[in-house]
Amino acid sequence: MSRRCAACGQHFNPLPQVPDQTYCSDYECQRERRRRWQREKQRTDPDYRDNQMRSQKRWAQKHPDYWQQYRKKNPCYVERNRKRQRARNENQGSAKIAKIDASALPLPPPTGRYRLIPVSHDEVAKRDEWIVEITVLSSPFRAVREDCKDMT
Predict the structure, then answer these.
(1) Is residue 125 scored above 60 in pLDDT?
(2) CB neighbours of 30 closer than 8 A, spacing ≥ 6?
(3) Residue pLDDT, tens place only, 30-77
(4) Within a 10 A sphere around the Cβ of 139, how many other Cβ atoms?
(5) Is the pLDDT score of 11 beyond 80?
(6) Are residues 99 and 152 in the same domain?
(7) Does residue 133 fall inside a structural domain?
(8) The pTM is what?
């Protein structure tokens, strides 16, 4: 009883121990099987997703210079990424691109009330960053404090 592999599309005979086998035994097909399982698990299991995120953060803290070293050792990778980013920027046209250091405001921002306005879908930002418009309004607490000074 031959089956078609879900990864490569080639016919294979399932192992007797695995009657529902859908991937052939090829190394790359097994990698693809694990990759798909992990992607689905990340999508559907919040505990698994949280555990993976914490694990990645721990690894990144233990290896803070990994990407700098990788880029030094792999100049082709760096050049390929630059070309791809330029192409993405051209495809975006006049869209704005957010960077970590794009704002010249002091950090943290001055105390005040802020208004967060959603941006349109054509703007680009890194995955863990937000593009926002911040409008500083006068703080009613500051006025109250100044009034209290007059009462003393």
Answers:
(1) no
(2) 23
(3) 999 999 999 999 999 999 999 999 999 999 999 999 999 999 999 999
(4) 13
(5) yes
(6) yes
(7) yes
(8) 0.49
Burial 81-113 (b: 16+ CB within 10 A, else e): eeeeeeeeeeeeeebeeeeeeeeeeeeeeeeee
Total length of the chain: 152
Residue 4 sits at φ, ψ, to 5 deg, of -100, 130
Q: Is residue 20 part of a domain?
A: yes
Give the residue among 114, 107, 106 at the shortest CA–CA distance from 134.
114
At 131, list the tokens.
């593009």
Is there a domain that residue 70 lies in? no
Q: Which domain holds residue 102?
A: 95-152
Q: Is residue 22 assigned to a domain?
A: yes
Domain count of the fold of the chain? 2
Task: Return left, alpha or beta for 85; rule: phi > 0 is left, psi -120 to 50 is alpha, else beta.
Answer: alpha
Distant-in-sequence, close-in-space partners of 39: CB < 8 Å, separation ≥ 6: none
Instruction: List all residues 6 or more positions away from 15 whose beta carbon is below 8 Å from its beta carbon.
Output: 21, 25
Tokens 């990340």 belong to residue: 42
